[in-house]
Amino acid sequence: EMVRRGEILDDSMEDEFYLRRLDAGMFVLQLLCYIMVEISSSGVSQLQQRVHQILNIRGGSVKVVRHIMREYAESIGDGKSDEFKEAERKRIMDLADNF
Q1: Which stretches make up the Beta-catenin-like protein 1 N-terminal domain (predicted)?
Q2: Are 18 and 75 in contact (CB under 8 A)?
Q3: Which residues contact 17 (CB under 8 A, 6 or more apart)?
Q4: What are the pLDDT digits (tens) for 24-46?
Q5: Do residues 41 and 2 touch, judged by C-beta distance below 8 A?
Q6: Three-state DSSP class for 35?
Q7: 13: pLDDT strictly greater than 80
Q8: Which of 32, 29, 51 is nearest to 41 (CA)?
């Protein structure tokens, strides 16, 4: 809403809004999406088909899952080394892209 009104958000405000979204259920949603992309990347085609089938039945989309995973990857790694954060981001992004 603030962006639509032309207001500029600083980093601390963006962090605060992100934390509010996490508290409101975004964390659980990110974990569920992470589980879906991990299962889909297991190499078992029946699992990937079933995940996509359930996603379609529930009205979800691959595009939304990928967006959620990209946002999750961007925020990962508080308190971890830079190498760990970058490796984990790359791994998550690869999972999302192959979903």
Answers
A1: 10-70
A2: yes
A3: 9
A4: 999 999 999 999 999 999 889 89
A5: no
A6: helix
A7: no
A8: 51
Q: Which residue has the tokens 């946002």?
A: 71
Q: How far apart are CA 99 and CA 96, in angstroms?
A: 5
Which residue is listed with tokens 């899952």?
Answer: 65
Q: By C-alpha distance, which of 52, 24, 22, 20 is closest to 36?
A: 52
In Å, what is the CA distance from 80 to each residue of 71, 83, 84, 86? 18, 8, 6, 10
Two tokens at 51?
């995940």
| Residue 93, CA atoms < 13 Å, CB-side half-sphere | 12
What global pTM score does this model have? 0.77
Length of the chain: 99
> Which tokens go with 88?
């984990």
